[in-house]
Amino acid sequence: MTDSSSLIAAKAVEDIYTEVGQWHVNVGEEKIHPKRMPGRWRNIKWWSSSVWLIFFLGPYLRWGDRQAVLFDLPSQKFYLFGLTVLPQDLWILSLILLFFAILLAVVTAVAGRVFCGFFCFQTVWTDIYVAIEEWLEGSPRQRQKLDEAKWGLNKIRTKGLKHLLWLLIGLITGISFVAWFMDAQVLWQGLWSLSLPSEAVITISAFVVGTYTLAGFMREQTCLWLCPYSRIQGVMVDQFTVLPAYDVDRGEPRGRRRKEALAENLGDCIDCNLCVAVCPTGVDIRQGQQQGCITCALCIDACDSVMDKLGRPRGLIRYDSLNGLEGQKQLPWYKRGRVWTYLSILTFAVVGGSYGLATLDALELKVIQKRQPLYVTLSDGSIQNRYRLKILNKVDKSMEVVISAKADAELMLIGADKPVAVTASGVTAHDLFVRVPKGDLAASTLPLTFSVKSIDSRQWYAEREAVFIAPASVDKRSEP
Ligand code: SF4
Ligand code: SF4
User: Fold this and answer.
1) Torsion 420-423-427-428 (CA) sign
2) What is the pLDDT of residue 262?
3) SS (H, E, C) 176-187
4) 243 Cβ inside 6 Å of ligand 2
5) Is 20 in the pocket of ligand 1 (CB under 6 A)?
6) What is the pLDDT of residue 28?
7) Contacting residues for 179 by C-beta, under 8 A, at least 6 apart
8) For labelling, which of 64, 67, 298, 426 has a CA lying 20 to 30 Å from the CA of 336?
9) How far is the CA of 298 from the centre of ligand 1 (A)?
10) According to the model, what pLDDT value does residue 325 have?
């Protein structure tokens, strides 16, 4: 380093110490007031957090005269745009959930708890709560001072407004959650007229309390002590997983510099603690990977800003694997067995879920044979059975269907001469008789297949096998 650049770096070091000298490293025994600073990862965090806008705005997307995506629990129907998924199709939803669970495992194996740092509702909501706190109460130092100050008008006003905004966010969160399970328009009407069902009121209240407590007060403690994912993620990462990591070889021996001591043989870490000050969970990344690290990379932004001021290369803290830090060859993700294992399960979930959605029949048919009596012998000798057809229409439009039946005998359907109107997204029961001339029966049981077909342009179709029952004497008669 030249003399002039040494002087510039020395001034930068003084500035950093002046700025961060006030920081106290929180080890969990007190409330963490993380410092917020701009940077590349901070911007990425804002963008990734914006995914949650889907949660808030999604329920207001309409599809025809109803909500596009709605989990209608009371009527046990899940509306997905034009599709209606009923309880018997819930295996598709299970595969979709499996997809997201395994996606989480793949991402963790490749890049650690990137979900925690950039997408998790707990860290995203906490981030917003802290932003409000900073907006109203100022920098972490000012927040600490306000916490310690005696209660007065200013403190009551500032804290009161903060808690009001926190509760308001909790309320919006609760309303948005319920809006996925109850038509959003009906929900808002119920809110304005104070006539919401008790289940909705209880759920919204639980969300207000939960969000306010978890994001406002418990914050990083939720990640440390309550989150099960932080406990199991240890088995998903290995020496190839890329995580925010401190380059010990480059940083150590760390040490505070003074102007005259700049030339000392120290590592690049000037022990300014800025990386700890910005950490939302109070982790000191220089002590190695810890359970509390949510991989938000904000410490990278902090340290990069210090390195910029010192004129040193960025990346003292950087995304790297254990192998990378030790100078060993990094295995690309596609050469890692565990990634392929997770990807195989992921593919199974994608293929299964897609197949299920693509082949989701609009019509489903159930046939129940009336058993009292099992059959009736008519005056002309023909045998008659009675059936109840349950026609399930999974689309959100009513339709008319034609009922037919086929078997190895001449069948006459009584009660199926006209198309039957089938209600939208529901089951329609229809009773009919099947009659077979006595001479046509070769046995006391005759397999037959019922079918329903819509008469509109879509020609939805479903069929179901059943049995026609005749007297046992038919068997005797046909014996050789
Ligand atoms: S790692 Fe970087 S930010 Fe952290 S104390 Fe060292 S120089 Fe400061
Ligand atoms: S150590 Fe760094 S990456 Fe980990 S939580 Fe703290 S700021 Fe985020």
Assistant:
1) negative
2) 53
3) HHHCCCCCHHHH
4) no
5) no
6) 47
7) 59, 60, 187
8) 298
9) 12
10) 82
Q: How far apart (Å, rounded) are the C-alpha atoms in residues 69 and 319?
A: 38
Q: How far apart are CA 456 and CA 451, in angstroms?
A: 16
The number of folded domains in the chain is: 2
Residue 307 has what pLDDT? Answer: 93
Give the count of beta carbons closer than 10 Å to the beta carbon of residue 273.
Answer: 20
224 and 367 part of one domain: no
Atom of ligand 1 nearest to the CA of 254: 6
What is the CB neighbour count within 10 angstroms for residue 5? 11
| Residue 300 in contact with ligand 1 by CB distance below 6 A | no
User: Which ligand is located closest to the Cα atom of residue 252?
Assistant: 1
CA torsion sign for 298, 303, 306, 312 is negative
How far is the C-alpha of 91 from the C-alpha of 79, rounded, in Å?
15
Closest residue to atom 5 of ligand 2, CA basis: 293
The pLDDT assigned to 3 comes to 55
The pTM of the full predicted model, rounded to 2 decimals, is: 0.73
Residue 356, domain member (yes or no): no
Q: What is the pLDDT of residue 322?
A: 82
Å from CA of 127 to ligand 1 middle: 22
Q: How far is the CA of 299 from the centre of ligand 2 (A)?
A: 6
- Report pLDDT for 14: 64
Query: Ligand 2: which atom is nearest the Cα of residue 292?
Result: 5
User: What is the predicted pLDDT for the residue at 61?
Assistant: 95
Residue whose structure tokens are 């001469």? 417
CB of 293 closer than 6 angstroms to any ligand 1 atom:
no
Length of the chain: 480
Choose the final residue of a domain: 345, 376, 394. 345
Q: What is the pLDDT of residue 405?
A: 94
Phi, psi of 400 (to 5 degrees): -110, 135
What does each C-alpha distance from 254 to 27, 61, 268, 269, 296 come to in angstroms?
20, 55, 7, 5, 23
Specify if 45 maps to a domain: yes
Nearest ligand to the C-alpha atom of residue 17:
1
How does pLDDT run across 281-319, given as a tens digit for each residue? 888 999 888 878 888 999 999 999 999 998 899 999 999
What spacing in Å lies between the alpha carbon of 28 and ligand 1's midpoint?
Answer: 20
Residue to substitute in 20, 257, 306, 308 for testing ligand 1 pocket (most ligand atoms within 8 angstroms of CB): 306
Query: Which pLDDT does position 404 carry in this prediction?
Result: 94
What's residue 440's pLDDT? 84
| CB 278 less than 6 A from any atom of ligand 1 | no
Which ligand has the minimum distance to the alpha carbon of residue 296? Answer: 2
CATH number of the domain to which 380 belongs: 2.60.40.10
Range of the domain at 76: 31-237+339-345
Which residues of the chain fall below pLDDT 70?
A: 1-30, 234-235, 258-264, 330-331, 360, 475-480
User: Measured in angstroms, how far is the CA atom of residue 292 from the centroid of ligand 2?
Assistant: 8
